[in-house]
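Revision sheet: structure tokens.
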Amino acid sequence: MRAPRPLSPLDPPALERLALRYVERFATTRGKLAAYLTRKVRERGWAGAAPADPAAVAQRMAALGYVDDRAFADLKGASLARRGYGARRVADTLRAAGVTGDDAAEAMAQARAAAWDSALRLAQRRRIGPFAAQEVLDPKLRERHLAALLRAGHDMAMARRIVSAAPGEIPQAD
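Predicted:
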């Protein structure tokens, strides 16, 4: 078996091609794109005259409209809310993707507004509280249900209300 051919070092046009290929395949943010390009430069090396500037390439992709942090935040926030995740989890995910400030504000407002419905959606999917087949009396199982809601990014008061609800009695939002 032959050894794989070593990849040639990157130069500015190759870095642009990598960025274009990445943004055509994935919905991304400027931060994620810059991190990807930085990793590729570190793996393959750099052959350009000036030092590599992945952040500038990511900014250029955003200026061309290929990367939109606000649209990414809105889509990711809505997706997480539909799956039952709370505002804290949405904020963590957006921060990890490099979306901050004004770009994340609308998505966070929507996540906070949909928090109760998202928590109920998760409870239904996991059969917690009002969606359980029978009342949960085991304190360890109640703790596990509470922990699942907290890990999903819901606040303690909301999680306690849902876990303590009797099967079939869906509590109303405050």
